[in-house]
Amino acid sequence: MTSYTIREGDYGISVYKLQSYLNTMKKENFINTTNNLDGIYGKTTKDAVKEWQAYANINVDGIIGYNTWNTLVNKLRELEIVTNIPIANKNFYLGQSQQGLAVYKIQEYINELAEKNPCLRPISIDGIYGEKTTIAIQQYQYLYDLLIDGIVGSMTWDSIINERNKL
């Protein structure tokens, strides 16, 4: 488990994707708040997160930590929802030198996939996007016929989440 969090004031691909997951939960009538898909963690996103946390019966603090992330993504898995969420802002991605909860979870998912696919190699799960994470992402992109650039943009993100949710 990690101490990394995503909270009010944060922005980027992880916020954007989680906003869209929360909107899916709204469509499924688990929460009432609709998010603007802007990748900026503001008051509306915080409110939606609190609603989700209450629904999931976990600590309600408006911060996306390990447990909040897991309950949200696992609900997508349970509902068999395939994500394919394009992002308008091309500056939203995970890459070299970034760190945080999103990197941690992507590393964790790569390792889950590596357990089932011997062509993928497990990596350290530390929340830091270094050289080994870049190589693992490139391997994943090669195996799943994605652009091989070593960064987690929208297509790679969705592919990893969808493949993990098939396990």
Write the layout of secondary structure elements.
Blueprint: H1 13-27, H2 43-56, H3 66-79, H4 101-116, H5 131-143, H6 154-166
Helix pairs in contact: 1-3, 3-6, 4-6
Protein model, in words:
The chain has 167 residues and is mainly α. It has 2 domains: 13-79, Muramoyl-pentapeptide Carboxypeptidase, domain 1; 101-166, no CATH class. It is 51% helix and 0% strand. The chain has 6 helices and no strands. Helix 1 crosses helix 3 and helix 4 (101-116) packs across helix 6. The longest helix is centred in the middle third of the chain and has 16 residues, at 101-116. The two termini are 20 Å apart.
What is the string of SSEs from the N terminus onward?
HHHHHH
**How far apart are the first and last residues' alpha carbons, in Å?**
20 Å
CATH topology name of the largest domain: Muramoyl-pentapeptide Carboxypeptidase, domain 1
- Assess the beta-strand content as a share of residues: under 5%
In total, how many beta strands? 0
Give the tally of structural domains.
2
Q: Can you give the mean pLDDT?
A: 92
Structural class: mainly alpha
The level of helicity is 40-55%
TL;DR?
This protein is mainly α and 167 residues long. It has helices at residues 13-27, 43-56, 66-79, 101-116, 131-143, 154-166. Helix 4 packs across helix 6.
Which characteristics define this entry?
6 helices, 0% strand, 167 residues, mainly alpha, globular, Muramoyl-pentapeptide Carboxypeptidase, domain 1, 2 domains
